[in-house]
Write a structure and sequence with these properties.
Elements lengths: L1 H6 L13 E6 L6 H10 L7 H23 L3 E3 L6 H12 L4 E18 L6 E18 L3 E8 L6 E6 H11 L4 E4 L2 E5 L2 H6 L2 E3 L2 E8 L3 E7 L7 E8 L2 E8 L7 H20 L5 H10 L3 E3 L2 E3 L7 H10 L4 H4 L3 H9 L5 H20 L3 E3 L6 E3 L1 H26 L1
Parallel strand pairs: 2-3
Antiparallel strand pairs: 1-6, 3-4, 4-5, 5-6, 7-8, 9-10, 10-11, 12-13, 14-15, 16-17
Helix pairs in contact: 8-13, 11-12
Length: 407
């Protein structure tokens, strides 16, 4: 990240980092058919009473939502069809100058995970199923958290979702410390003191990192984690029947929020470092000559790389993909990029062995490094710089040279 900010220092007025959307979900421990059947039995109900029971509970939720809106003197809105809920809410806030409390309650029919009755052996049974039900959105303005919404689905298992906006939280902190700012939509276009403020779509298995221009003035790098188990956190757990402190898959939960922040900051930093290599310095151009030379490791030769060779170009393009900045690359990731997918086990094994040899070759040339305690690899700073120059030469410099020679 320092490389990027140093290279484009004259164009950057400041830099901040914060969470974007923070989503919490709450579930009752009756999210599968057998558990729901057990819950009904505890209430003295039979499975055939399921529909009447859940409809009664849904009406109670709807009555509570309407009563809350009425007692607070706030709108109780029904949305039919696609709408931008937050745009409606922001319109209400701006029109009425709201600062705190309930903004409105919305109700809308949306897909949800619920249950349905199906025939079973001797009796009907409940199974999980994708349904549509009435969902309620409660929008609040909190003095510290800013705009918050709570979504409750009216059908069992009554999933609750709480959504916070990291930019609103930061805005409240700036207000508290008297730091002036300008905010458009969900982006800060100017902050009086970014140093004080800081204190205060590449996809990979459901996670992604993206870059976009916000309002023509804000370069935004954003990492989104939907599948946290692709990452690891150091915590207490059980291995081979023993309680140990080790690296385990990252789980969803407030306790791991610090690890989410570490992962996102690291991914954003590596992404910006890769962008800093877009304009190749002179020394990197010289590095291509060394890249073309063979090297020896443990008495074995490892040939260099040729900027005009199609195989080397495909390999560099495969390892330079943006999604690898999230949590590195595996043999399987690069193998699918180079050879596609196949059901032939022998062919897949030969392809995997070839990729292993390619990884070793990249490692010997200092382009690739192993991530400790994993089977993943990541480009080194040296590798990021040289591969970016390699690709730039192939796609830009060589065509320009050929065009000049043809003229």
């Amino acid at each position: 990240m320092k490389r990027f900010t140093h290279q484009y220092n004259e164009l950057i007025t400041g830099m901040i980092s914060c969470f974007d959307r923070i989503l919490f979900k709450g579930y009752l421990p009756i999210g599968w058919g057998d558990a729901m059947e057990g819950f009904l039995a505890q209430q003295g109900l039979r499975i055939k009473d399921f529909s009447k029971f859940v409809q009664k509970q849904s009406r109670r939720i709807a009555e509570h939502a309407e009563r809350l809106a009425k007692n607070s003197g706030r709108p109780y809105l029904y949305l039919n069809g696609p709408h931008r809920k937050e745009a409606i809410v922001q319109g209400l806030i701006k029109a009425e100058g709201l600062r705190q409390g309930l903004v409105c309650v919305m109700r809308v029919v949306e897909p949800c995970q619920s249950f349905k009755l199906v025939p079973g052996e001797g009796r009907p049974r409940l199974v999980t199923a994708q349904q549509k039900c009435l969902c309620f959105y409660f929008y609040f303005l909190d003095p510290k958290l800013g705009l918050v919404h709570v979504r409750i689905q009216s059908w069992f298992p009554l999933v609750v979702q709480v959504c916070l906006n990291g930019h609103d939280i930061l805005a409240r902190k700036l207000d508290k410390h008297g730091i002036a700012y300008q905010k458009e939509d969900n982006a800060f276009t100017w902050i009086e003191d970014t140093q004080r403020a800081q204190r205060v779509k590449h996809r990979a298995k459901g996670n992604w990192i993206k870059m976009y221009d916000k309002h023509g003035r804000v370069l935004r790098i954003e990492t989104v984690i939907n599948q946290p188990r692709e990452f690891k956190v150091r915590r207490q757990g059980v291995r081979k029947g023993r309680e140990v402190i080790d690296w385990f898959p990252l789980c969803k939960g407030v306790a791991n929020l610090f690890r989410y922040a570490e992962i996102c900051r690291g991914a954003n930093r590596r992404y910006l470092d890769a962008l800093a290599a877009v304009e190749p310095p002179v020394e990197a151009m010289r590095g291509l000559r060394h890249l073309a030379r063979s090297r020896r490791r443990n008495g074995r030769p490892h040939r260099g790389f040729n900027p005009t060779a199609e195989d080397d170009l495909c390999l560099f393009a495969a390892v330079f993909r943006g999604e690898h900045t999230l949590h590195g690359m595996r043999n399987q990731d690069v193998r699918q990029q180079l050879f596609g997918t196949t059901n032939d086990r022998d062919l897949r094994r030969r392809q995997a062995n070839k990729v292993s040899r390619l990884f070793r070759r990249l490692h010997v040339h200092g382009l690739l490094a192993k991530i400790p305690r994993t089977r993943r690899w990541r480009l080194t700073k040296h590798g990021t710089l040289l591969i970016s120059v390699f690709l730039k030469c192939h796609y830009e410099k060589y065509p320009e040279l050929l065009a000049a020679l043809a003229a």
